[in-house]
Amino acid sequence: MDYLGRLRLGVNIDHVATVRNARGGNVPDPVRAAKLAEEFGADGVTAHLREDRRHMVDEDIEALVDALTVPLNFEMAATDEMQKIALRHKPHAVCIVPERREERTTEGGLEVAREENKLAHFIAPLADAGCRVSIFIAADPRQIEAAARIGAAVVELHTGAYCDAHAEGRFDERDAELARLRDMSSFAHSLGLEVHAGHGLTYDTVQPVAAFPEVMELNIGHFLIGEAIFVGLGSAMQKMRKLMDEART
Questions:
Q1: Is the pTM of this model over 0.90?
Q2: Which of 132, 172, 174, 196 could form a Cys-Cys staple with 156, CB 3.0–4.6 A?
Q3: How much helix, strand and coil, in percent to the nearest 5, is found in the chain?
């Protein structure tokens, strides 16, 4: 039952910048990708400004703030530098993610329960500035409860373990991860948190997650940018949007 309304699609454009940075220069332009995503019906655009600037750079964020008419979801680590950047730009949403230099991409969710006091103080100025604060976490009741206690508006549940198990043919583990995501979506909603989900979702894995009525937004990036190489970003998004809508109804 779709009792919380239309499921939103946020498009992460980080890896357009990854391709640009592999050679240097200005192409492909992530801001152009963001505007295309907007044109083809994205409900928001996600961009992660990492400490090492391995994909998005500061100028990209400035340009996105100026160019977008849909909400910008600014992913960032819980550092003083990133807090200052977010407070300067005041994006619609700020998603706090874990970050390690040696990782290829974000691995696992944020450890909120262990850093509860620190994170509560970190996100308070962001919320006061009008940003919707989201916490990227594993589907774990301890982390969800801690996210609620520190005053986050949103939790984004990490779908990577579910997607990896599916891709590797570990179907019992996949089904267990999916059940955990379903249960924790309901639990987070019961605590008054808005529920998002993302990481690793593809055409093959999106529908079971999209069917959870408590999930209000999916954030998908790497897969859509990869598909765009072959079919264009608009076609990739349209197919994903169709699968999401079918699952929701």
A1: yes
A2: 196
A3: 50, 15, 35
